[in-house]
């Protein structure tokens, strides 16, 4: 049975992805910073709860040891993320602070690297290892730089910059570990707590590309950037 870890899975896209992968027959670990919320979510889903705070070395290391003792890991979905610049108005370049940028990168970028580093040894023992990094359409430099697009109209800096870094990490890890399928995905503007439920689509719709890429085979793509319609421009 395929063992899958999803970070930030007690709600939103992570929760829906966990639900779908449990239905597909995966043994799913619901990674959650809040242990009690994670336990309740896992109980509802028929999954396994794992306490995992991507900003904490000890927490991530302990989670890796637990999953290793259970038998290992085949699929890692790096879903945990924050967008503290969201609000009314969004924090743009004129009001951006180092503290806001640092906090965003600590979770969305450094946290993801922390998890990758801890779980790569387990993934490399799998017969069909897969990593899905949840990115954003706002990470596309092409789109953000093109007048008339929704991405161009977005004024925030910290969140798009963090997700652009996620894309670069995806490419570099995919080159370094060619036996793994490592891809970045754009779920679309989904109504979740990340954006105050202002998104235009449901979590069911947003999770579709995550679920799809979590199930790619050994002949599937790697080092790519995808949404539900196909390949996205960097």
Summarize this, please?
Helices cover 44% and strands 14% of the residues.
The CATH topology is what?
Rossmann fold
> Could you say what the CATH architecture is?
3-Layer(aba) Sandwich
Shape: globular
Radius of gyration: 17 Å
Structural class: alpha/beta
Strand order of the largest sheet: 3-2-1-4-5-6-7-8
Oligomer: single chain
Tell me the series of helices and strands, N- to C-terminal: EHEHEHEHEHHHEHEE
Q: Which spans of ≥5 residues are poorly predicted at pLDDT below 50? A: none
Overall helicity: 40-55%
Ends distance: 34 Å
Largest sheet: 8 strands, mixed
Give the DSSP E fraction (strand runs of 2 or more residues): 5-15%
CATH superfamily: NAD(P)-binding Rossmann-like Domain
CATH class (first level) name: Alpha Beta
Mean pLDDT: 95
Query: In the residues, how many domains can be counted?
Result: 1
Indicate the topology:
Elements: E1 3-6, H1 12-23, E2 27-32, H2 35-45, E3 48-51, H3 57-70, E4 75-78, H4 98-123, E5 130-134, H5 141-144, H6 150-153, H7 158-176, E6 181-185, H8 203-214, E7 225-227, E8 230-231
Parallel strand pairs: 1-2, 1-4, 2-3, 4-5, 5-6, 6-7
Antiparallel strand pairs: 7-8
Keywords for this entry:
234 residues; Rossmann fold; 8-stranded mixed beta sheet; 8 helices; globular
Q: Describe it for me?
A:
This protein is an alpha/beta fold. The chain has one domain (3-231): 3-Layer(aba) Sandwich (Rossmann fold). The chain is 44% helix and 14% strand. It has helices at residues 12-23, 35-45, 57-70, 98-123, 141-144, 150-153, 158-176, 203-214, and strands spanning 3-6, 27-32, 48-51, 75-78, 130-134, 181-185, 225-227, 230-231. α4 runs parallel beside α7. It starts with a strand and ends with a strand. The model has no long low-confidence stretch (mean pLDDT 95).
């Amino acid at each position: 049975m395929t063992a899958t870890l999803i970070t930030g899975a007690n709600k939103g896209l992570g929760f829906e992805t966990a639900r779908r992968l449990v239905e597909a027959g995966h043994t799913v670990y619901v990674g959650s910073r809040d242990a009690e919320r994670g336990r309740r979510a896992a109980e509802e889903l028929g999954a396994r709860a794992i306490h995992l705070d991507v900003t904490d070395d000890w927490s991530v290391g302990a989670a890796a040891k637990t999953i290793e003792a259970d038998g290992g890991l085949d699929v890692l979905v790096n879903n945990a993320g924050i967008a503290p610049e969201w609000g009314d108005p969004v924090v743009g370049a004129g009001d951006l602070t180092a503290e806001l940028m640092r906090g965003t990168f600590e979770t969305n970028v450094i946290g993801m690297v922390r998890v990758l580093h801890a779980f790569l040894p387990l993934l490399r023992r799998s017969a069909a290892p897969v990593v899905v990094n949840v990115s954003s359409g706002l990470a596309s430099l092409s789109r953000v730089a093109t007048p008339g697009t929704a991405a161009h109209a977005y004024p925030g800096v910290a969140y798009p910059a963090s997700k652009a870094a996620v894309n670069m990490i995806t490419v570099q890890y995919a080159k370094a570990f060619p036996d793994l399928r490592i891809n970045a995905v754009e779920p679309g503007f989904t109504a979740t707590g990340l954006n105050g439920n202002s998104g235009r689509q449901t979590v069911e719709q947003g999770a579709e590309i995550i679920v799809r890429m979590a199930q790619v085979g050994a002949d599937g793509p790697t080092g790519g950037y995808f949404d539900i319609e196909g390949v996205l421009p960097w």
